[in-house]
């Protein structure tokens, strides 16, 4: 039972970081080979994140169905990695769903990208600066 909880909590903690790394890795080759088509997709970080979770899900489903080899040559099926990954994905989705609209509203209220002039503005966003001349 201790091995189950060890696997569960390790996948619960490390799945988001691995999903980000694997997600970027999964999209790296298509981005290089098909850069014009990928540029039009307007991918956000969450797309990379979900792609990484698909990669981790394949790995954990393999551990669930096929299992890993024991010292005596037998197979041990492991449910801890799959359940840890699934719990981590649900928590990441809930955080993104809760914080996503707040962060988007904060970006809109800030006026878009820093250093880019807003319509009707002079391009100088600091209140102490005026238009030179």
Shape: flat
What is the H-and-E element order? Answer: HHHEEH
Cα-atom radius of gyration: 22 Å
- Strands in their spatial order, largest beta sheet: 1-2
Low-pLDDT runs: none
Keywords for this entry:
mainly alpha; single chain; two-stranded antiparallel ribbon; about 130 residues
Structure, explained:
The protein is mainly alpha-helical. A two-stranded antiparallel sheet has the order 1-2. Helix 1 packs across helix 4. The chain is flat, with a radius of gyration of 22 Å.
What's a quick, concise take on this entry?
With 133 residues, the protein is mostly helical.
Layout of helices and strands:
Elements: H1 2-33, H2 35-41, H3 45-65, E1 68-69, E2 75-76, H4 80-110
Antiparallel strand pairs: 1-2
Helix pairs in contact: 1-2, 1-3, 1-4, 3-4
């Amino acid at each position: 039972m201790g091995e189950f909880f060890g696997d569960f909590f390790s996948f619960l903690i490390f799945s988001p970081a691995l999903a980000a790394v694997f997600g970027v890795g999964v999209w790296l080759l298509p981005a290089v080979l098909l850069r014009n088509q990928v540029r039009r997709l307007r991918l956000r970080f969450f797309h990379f994140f979900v792609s990484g979770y698909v990669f981790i899900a394949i790995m954990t489903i393999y551990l669930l169905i096929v299992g890993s080899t024991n010292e005596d040559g037998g197979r041990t099926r492991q449910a801890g990695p799959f359940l840890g990954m699934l719990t981590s994905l649900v928590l990441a989705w809930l955080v993104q769903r809760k914080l996503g609209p707040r962060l988007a509203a904060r970006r809109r209220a800030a006026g878009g990208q820093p250093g880019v002039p807003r319509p009707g503005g002079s391009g100088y966003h600091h209140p102490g600066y005026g238009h030179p001349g």
